[in-house]
Amino acid sequence: MTWLVTGGAGYIGAHVVSVMREAGERVVVLDDLSSGDPARIPGTPLVVGSVLDAGLVAETLRGHDVRGIVHIAAKKQVEESVRRPLHYYRENVEALRVLLEAATEAGVESFIFSSSAAVYGAPDVDTVVEDTECRPVNPYGTTKLVGEWLVRDVAAATGLRYVNLRYFNVAGAVDPALTDRGVSNLVPMVFQRLSERRPPLVFGDDYDTPDGTCVRDFIHVGDIASAHLAAAQALAAGRVDALTANIGRGEGVSVREMVSTIREVTGTADQSWAEPVVEPRRPGDPARVVASADTIRDALGWQARYGVREMVASAWAGWTARGARVPSGERE
């Protein structure tokens, strides 16, 4: 059985490709390389192009005899989605429609959809379970929820087996070569500020949380990857037909706590210039979103292995492997 991984040359996608290939799965990648890098997936067949290109998608599915799809390719910046909602609907919803249409025509049997905790919006609960009401508060989250509906409805009409995986806040790296090179996520964003000898930014400290900053469930990208492998194996074996599940650790960490851990790992905890600076809230940021991971544990036997410090330390190893360093000493 061959799996197509869309966005497989990106940060998360490359980790998924790596763990699937290590498990003996046959994989082909479709990536437009807007944020991906072929060097992340050596030895893996790569088709360069967009999921929006229906002809290319159909040709790829036929040419590689694809029977399962892991759809990771998407736009994912909350703030950008607020400014450019039509762009996000095109890239995240229309692209998925194109992919599902091609998959149906090609007889693809299994589908894994990369969803997000953003589908929940700003839930007024300590821990989010999968049947918590979904009320997204930004266009990014809405596109992911619509994506889940698309997958569900196509499956009901065609018999497609599927798993929707709702990622929480992804960090870390299993291999420095696969590290997150973008700066839209919290950890690399703080790394960049520190490497430039500038204080980290905290967006809002007046939320209804213990320290006033947003609380999130951070999950190591290696755990994200292993969840995809578990889902792929369960679908291929016919053990799962329809599943929507959170991928998280079930532990909330505030932004201020995460910045503190980053400063410890990077050796800037005692540097006054590295004290975080509070900026206004960003549009579309909920106060607290923490996962219950009981569903995926019960259905797939999966659970997270890595802790927060391991996430930060592995991400920092990847960051410094690219030649970045934090200046030592106090600011003059």
What is shown here, in short?
With 332 residues, the protein is α/β, with parallel strands linked by helices. It is built from ten helices and 14 strands. The radius of gyration is 19 Å and the shape is globular.
**Rounded radius of gyration (Å):** 19 Å
**Which H/E pattern describes the elements?**
EHEEHEHHEHEEHEEEHEEHEEHH
Q: Could you give the distance between the termini?
A: 60 Å
On the 0 to 100 scale, the average pLDDT is: 95
Main sheet record: 7 strands, parallel
Give the helix proportion (percent range). Answer: 25-40%
**In CATH, what is the class of the largest domain?**
Alpha Beta
Structural domains: how many: 2
Shape: globular
Going across the major beta sheet, what is the strand order?
3-2-1-4-5-6-11
Q: Indicate the proportion of strand residues.
A: 15-25%
The helix-and-strand class reads alpha/beta
Protein name: UDP-glucose 4-epimerase
Pfam families: Epimerase
InterPro entries: Epimerase_deHydtase, NAD(P)-bd_dom_sf, UDP_G4E
Catalytic activity: UDP-alpha-D-glucose = UDP-alpha-D-galactose
